[in-house]
Task: inverse folding
């Protein structure tokens, strides 16, 4: 795992976007796993800028989103369909037929979850999965105690997650209780992971995910098992990392590292 510490949110977002660009430049038909939430927003804004100003071509890219609230229609302002369309998809040239987001209104959730897994496999698997992290250390909607080998499924949200997300809704009781989400095992199948985190509210979760024990109580800790994971944080989110000096030394020395 590589930990990259940036001075602020803007720099963090640009560093993360460059990893996405490298993957797409290397493999124009790359399969990208997308995350929603306030933290990846800067990353998406930078990709939009690169598309518009520097001709970043995403016309052969396929995307799979991590999750969606159950019960929200695609046009609901708090649905992840709406979020992705407003902040990313309508501004770039990814073909609509290449965009995959879990359905929050399907009539058969088990069948849809199975189809979603099959669809990822049919597309050759996810090349790069973008991740955020919850304040309790969860990834996607894999709440504490989720199986670290779990696949796409229906999940009941924890009180902490509902409380954290209530700020996006008019009332706390409007926050859905269920979500459809990729599993931890699904996420770990991606060839590369990039996790972004910003602000002091995420400092404890990042320290647990990067340096804590591997545990289902902090599902983000599963990234420790991944062969190619990069965690990109700002100063505040890095505040509780005990090995910070080492991470900064590795990153500074990286250009001089021996290449096989």
Result:
């Amino acid at each position: 795992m590589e930990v990259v510490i940036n001075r602020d949110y803007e720099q963090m977002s640009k560093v993360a976007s460059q990893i996405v660009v490298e993957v797409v430049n290397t493999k124009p038909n790359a399969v990208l796993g997308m995350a929603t939430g306030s933290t990846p927003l800067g990353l998406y804004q930078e990709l939009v800028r690169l598309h518009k100003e520097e001709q970043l071509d995403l016309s052969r890219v396929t995307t799979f989103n991590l999750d969606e609230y159950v019960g929200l229609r695609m046009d609901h302002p708090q649905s992840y369909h709406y979020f992705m369309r407003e902040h990313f998809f309508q501004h770039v040239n990814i073909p609509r037929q290449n965009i995959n987001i879990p359905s929050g209104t399907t009539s058969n959730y088990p069948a849809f979850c199975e189809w979603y897994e099959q669809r990822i496999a049919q597309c050759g698997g996810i090349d790069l999965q973008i991740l955020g992290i919850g304040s309790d250390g969860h990834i996607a909607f894999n709440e504490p105690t989720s199986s670290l080998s779990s696949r796409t499924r229906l999940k009941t949200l924890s009180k902490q997650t509902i409380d954290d997300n209530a700020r996006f809704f008019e009332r706390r009781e409007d926050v859905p209780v269920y979500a459809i989400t990729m599993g931890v095992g699904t996420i770990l199948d991606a060839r590369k992971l990039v996790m972004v985190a910003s602000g002091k509210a995420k400092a404890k979760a990042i320290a647990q995910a990067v340096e804590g024990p591997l545990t289902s109580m902090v599902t983000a800790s599963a990234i420790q098992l991944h062969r190619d994971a990069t965690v990109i944080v700002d100063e505040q989110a890095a505040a509780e990392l005990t090995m910070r000096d080492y991470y900064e030394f590795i990153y500074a020395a990286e250009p001089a590292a021996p290449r096989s």
